[in-house]
């Protein structure tokens, strides 16, 4: 991948490889320091009450990260929502709706009976959360405090889960869950654009629980963190679904020529999982996170189809596609989240839910 975003990520994670790259990183350092200082000042203004914070009348869980880019927030939100729904609670997810179509006011994606709007309007991740958890309330709002008020006052939410909200300090939270990539938790430790961080590492002091995502054997030990640390990893499902949701065993794809594509933060991980499950990937097509399947993207899929038998993609991509748009049958393979050392999370959730019953 030679895109500017991929180059920047490689530079920040692996370091400069030559003199021009070292010079570039040095030139970016002042901008990174300034970006970090702006975030620090902003956080202190909220902490001192100089910027307004909405306090919801129900428990609030925030899920977010320190680094820009995907660290697996949606699977963690999905995991939490499933656990809370399992306790019979009326759970609401509040999202900014990244990738949605210019939303200005709050949009109710689900009232507790599955998606009500198109993913092009609300964004792929809120739509997917609503589809995977039809009993959950899902609200998208650029001003998330507006979405939180709507969920509580109009929809009867008993507990809120804020998606991608570590830096969204305009809503008070009772539990702050911070996600860190297990392989490179802090990258090079610098804020954007000199690094990948949205804030200085000192911002981690706001966290209550920390989840290392994409953990696997051989990952380095995490940095010292001011709270309990959990490990998690994505697990490829055992079934493949067509775009209408019809299921079949993943093994049915063995022996077929597969073109895999994915518009997620780390598509190579998805492709590797497919190979480890025995699929013959004759071509892979990594796309930008939150990819839009416009005429250009669909043409790229036609070009790579070749003599393949089937497309395979993620749930996040599949919600934006229709079978008639594609030159091959398409299967989506769900990812689930496996979480280890959950005692601290169990205790925190028990304390929050005790306030509801």
Topology readout:
Layout lengths: L3 H11 L4 H29 L12 E6 L7 H13 L5 E5 L11 E5 L7 H4 L1 H9 L4 E4 L3 H10 L5 E5 L11 E7 L27 E5 L14 E9 L2 E3 L5 E3 L7 E6 L4 H10 L3 E7 L8 H11 L4 E4 L1 H4 L11 E3 L2 E6 L2 H12 L3
Parallel strand pairs: 1-5, 1-6, 2-4, 2-5, 6-7, 7-8, 11-12, 11-13, 13-14
Antiparallel strand pairs: 3-4, 8-15, 9-10
Pfam family, one: LpxK
Keywords: ATP-binding, Kinase, Lipid A biosynthesis, Lipid biosynthesis, Lipid metabolism, Nucleotide-binding, Transferase
Family: Belongs to the LpxK family.
Features of the shown structure:
nine-stranded mixed beta sheet, four-stranded parallel beta sheet, 10 helices, 32% helix, lipid biosynthesis
Cα shape: globular
Q: Strand order, biggest sheet?
A: 3-4-2-5-1-6-7-8-15
**Proportion of residues in helical segments:** 25-40%
Distance between the termini: 51 Å
Keywords: ATP-binding, Kinase, Lipid A biosynthesis, Lipid biosynthesis, Lipid metabolism, Nucleotide-binding, Transferase
Pathway: Glycolipid biosynthesis; lipid IV(A) biosynthesis; lipid IV(A) from (3R)-3-hydroxytetradecanoyl-[acyl-carrier-protein] and UDP-N-acetyl-alpha-D-glucosamine: step 6/6
Pfam family, one: LpxK
Enzyme class: transferase
């Amino acid at each position: 991948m030679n895109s500017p975003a991929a180059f920047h990520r490689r530079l920040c994670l692996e370091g400069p490889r030559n003199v021009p790259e070292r010079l570039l990183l040095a030139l970016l350092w002042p901008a990174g320091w300034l970006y970090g200082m702006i975030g620090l000042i902003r956080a202190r203004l909220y902490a001192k009450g100089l910027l307004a914070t909405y306090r919801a009348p129900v428990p609030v869980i925030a899920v977010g990260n320190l680094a820009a880019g995907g660290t697996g927030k949606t699977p963690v939100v999905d995991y939490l929502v499933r656990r809370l729904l399992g306790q019979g609670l009326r759970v609401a997810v509040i999202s900014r709706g990244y990738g949605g179509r210019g939303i200005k006011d709050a949009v109710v994606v689900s009232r507790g009976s599955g998606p009500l709007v198109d993913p092009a309007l609300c964004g792929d991740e809120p739509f997917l959360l609503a589809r995977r958890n039809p009993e959950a309330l899902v609200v998208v709002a650029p001003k998330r405090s507006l979405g939180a008020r709507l969920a509580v006052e109009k929809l009867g939410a008993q507990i809120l889960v804020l998606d991608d909200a570590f830096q969204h300090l305009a809503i008070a939270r009772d539990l702050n869950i911070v996600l860190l990539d297990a392989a490179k938790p802090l990258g090079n430790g610098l804020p954007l654009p000199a690094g990948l961080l949205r804030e200085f590492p000192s911002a981690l002091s706001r966290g209550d629980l920390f989840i290392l995502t994409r953990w696997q054997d051989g990952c380095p030990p995490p940095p010292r963190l001011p709270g309990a640390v959990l490990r998690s990893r994505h697990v490829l499902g055992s079934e493949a679904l067509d775009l209408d949701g019809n299921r079949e065993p993943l093994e049915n794809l063995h022996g077929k020529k597969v073109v895999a594509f994915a518009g997620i933060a780390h598509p190579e991980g998805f492709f590797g999982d497919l190979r480890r499950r025995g699929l013959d990937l004759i071509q892979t097509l990594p796309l930008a996170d939150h990819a839009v399947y416009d005429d250009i993207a669909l043409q790229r899929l036609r070009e790579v189809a070749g003599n393949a038998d089937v497309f395979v993609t993620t749930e996040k991509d599949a919600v934006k596609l229709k079978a008639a748009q594609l030159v091959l049958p398409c299967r989506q393979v769900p990812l689930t989240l496996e979480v280890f050392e959950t005692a601290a999370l169990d205790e925190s959730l028990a304390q929050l839910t005790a306030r509801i019953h």
